[in-house]
Write a structure and sequence with these properties.
Number of strands: 32
Helix content: under 10%
Oligomer: single chain
Number of helices: 8
Strand order of the largest sheet: 10-9-14-13-12-11
Mean pLDDT: 89
Low-confidence stretches: 1-29, 31-52
Strand content: 25-35%
Distance between the termini: 28 Å
Radius of gyration: 22 Å
Length: about 550
């Protein structure tokens, strides 16, 4: 893909999940950004601008079902514990991010990459461990996180299924050996390691321009601690080639270590690779990596080496500047006797001074470095998406109840002169969650060909159906209509089963099938004999995270 020439719609179909639409805040939802053309984007390709004709919005639901509009059907492709290949590998737990890779351009057969973010001790083991987990429990936690590659197809009756005989299907777990790349490789910060054990907390990701996946490690704290694994070896971007198991896995340390949320990849005007990232924790920052070298389509997957060398920045939203995270800048700040440690860090100056000795330390402790250097802590910037025409960045800030941000909000970051490698940007809040906008706690976001926003809510299980979020009932998937002169509250497309989240939207090239993760059903279960969900209602009655294929897009 090149920013020097127009990008075809088919090319964008290869980069599902990176699009965005120009939007501005209105009293009820989102409106059209004046002067911005709405470019074609891969989510859904409606043959009409009347997007409301595509489905009849559903009402909020508190049922233990995946509720869809009339005419739509969901097929469970793979659920926790399902066999995925002839070797007997099984589908992991809490599936999140998904990404579809067509086989020979097909819209009815391809590989689906699926991240696995975490486990649920009670639902997996019957009870929550008291004290240190057993060896068996630790093994289960490591095996069932990471990622899966499964092969999926649509049969002659239109039913989507998983091909368990696929030569491509495989698991990546907390046991796989993974090579480190970039400045932190072999450094003291990662305990001298050049290779580490395992992919943990593979909750989110993005497709690369060379057709691989970056799987971003999220909240790995409990899993790495329980297994006695060095925390500093987790929280990185892990590159996976779905079609080539022999290529191995690589953690790219140049992109920084923190609790990763979503990400998006693009090119600067001079052809350098830019990766935008969000920190999914409270007080998380917005980051971007800019490669030193330039992208060449002819180099194919060798472009992956661009992720081993470059500059990492964090956003100062108040000044509209990207702050480069360097060891010189951090050490200078800490040597300033008048400098006061920002409150989100909760560490004294002496401890921080001991943490930062070389650039590898800055990358390994990127969150701390970002806050020290003036980057703005935000309320969980979990979802990111790029405008396909001007490449402005949209961010979903999920919520922070202690800040009074109960329902979250959406923001927009526009780079100076439209260049992803720019040092400065404009920043605006474009929509606030709540009853007036029809959504709460925005998580994953994406945009359709009419420039309308699709949004997954991420209300915590213990908050659902009560208090200020009671009217939203279960988590859902929403459309915020912005095309033409229309705007208004979000229209709900799907409602999740009890205590589940809907995330990881991914689409086939003809845009007639939507893949979606149903994550954490029964998340509030305290007694395995009395689960709070039974979805997907199999014979054993246990709640099972699963990925589904949704059909019914008739246009």
């Amino acid at each position: 893909m090149s920013v020097k020439k127009p990008i075809s719609r088919r090319t964008f179909l290869a980069y599902l999940g990176t699009g965005a639409a120009a939007i501005v805040a209105t009293s009820t939802g989102l409106g059209v950004l004046p002067g911005k053309a709405l470019a074609a984007d891969p989510l859904f390709s409606f043959q009409t601008n009347k997007i409301s004709d595509a489905f009849q919005p559903i009402e909020p639901s508190d049922s233990d079902e995946l509720v869809l509009p009339k005419g739509f059907k969901a097929y469970v492709l793979a659920a926790y514990g399902d066999k995925i290949n002839s070797k007997g590998d099984t589908f992991g737990y809490n599936n999140g991010y998904t990404c579809f890779f067509p086989i020979e351009g097909s819209s009815v057969n391809g590989l689906l990459f699926v991240g696995h973010a975490s486990i649920h001790s009670v639902l997996m083991h019957g009870k929550k461990p008291q004290g240190q987990p057993s060896a068996e429990q630790i093994k289960a936690a490591l095996v069932n996180q990471g990622a899966s590659v499964i092969e999926v197809y649509r049969d002659q009756e239109g039913v989507w299924k998983m091909n368990t005989d696929s030569i491509y299907a495989r698991r990546m777990t907390g046991y796989d050996p993974i090579e480190l790349t970039g400045p932190a490789k072999g450094s003291k910060a990662v305990h001298g390691a050049s290779r580490v054990q395992g992919l943990l907390a593979g909750g989110s990701g993005t497709r690369t321009l060379w057709n691989t996946v970056l799987s971003f490690e999220g909240d790995h704290t409990e899993a790495s601690r329980d297994a006695g694994l060095p925390s500093e070896q987790y929280g990185w971007a892990v590159e996976v080639d779905p079609f080539d198991a022999k290529s191995g896995l690589r953690k790219h340390t140049a992109l920084g270590r923190f609790k990763h949320g979503s990400a998006a990849m693009t090119l600067s005007k001079d052809g350098r690779v830019v990766v935008y990232m969000g920190g999914t924790s409270q007080h998380g920052c917005i980051y971007k990596f800019v490669s030193k070298g330039t992208y060449a389509a002819s180099a194919g997957k060798r472009n992956a080496d661009l992720l081993t060398d470059g500059a990492l920045y964090a956003a100062n939203l108040e000044t509209g500047e990207w702050v480069e995270l360097t060891i010189d800048a951090v050490q200078k700040k800490l040597k300033d006797s008048d400098f006061q440690i920002p409150s989100p860090l909760k560490k004294i100056k002496e401890v921080l001074t001991g943490m930062f000795k070389e650039q590898a330390d800055v990358l390994t402790h990127a969150h701390e470095a970002a806050i020290l250097l003036g980057a703005t802590p935000t309320d969980r910037p979990a979802g990111l998406a790029l405008h396909p025409a001007d490449h402005s960045l949209y961010i979903a800030h999920t919520s922070h109840s202690r800040h009074g941000n109960i329902h979250g909000h959406l923001t927009r970051l526009e780079e100076a002169k439209g260049d992803a490698a720019a040092a400065a940007f404009e920043f605006d809040t474009v929509s606030y969650g709540g009853r007036q906008s029809g959504y709460s706690a925005p998580g994953a976001i994406n945009f359709d060909s009419n420039g309308n926003l699709w949004l997954s809510s991420d209300i915590q299980a213990d908050k659902l159906n009560q208090g200020s979020v009671a009217s939203f009932k279960n988590n859902g998937l929403y459309l915020l209509q912005t095309s033409g002169s229309k705007s208004g509250p979000a229209m709900q497309f799907a409602s999740a089963p009890m205590e589940a989240r809907l995330t990881g939207a991914s689409f086939v090239p003809d845009e007639r099938t939507l893949f979606l993760s149903v994550q954490n059903p029964g998340d509030g279960t305290a007694d395995s004999a009395q689960p709070t969900s039974h979805w997907p209602h199999r014979s054993n009655g246990k709640p099972l995270p699963a990925v589904v294929a949704i059909s019914g897009f008739n246009y």
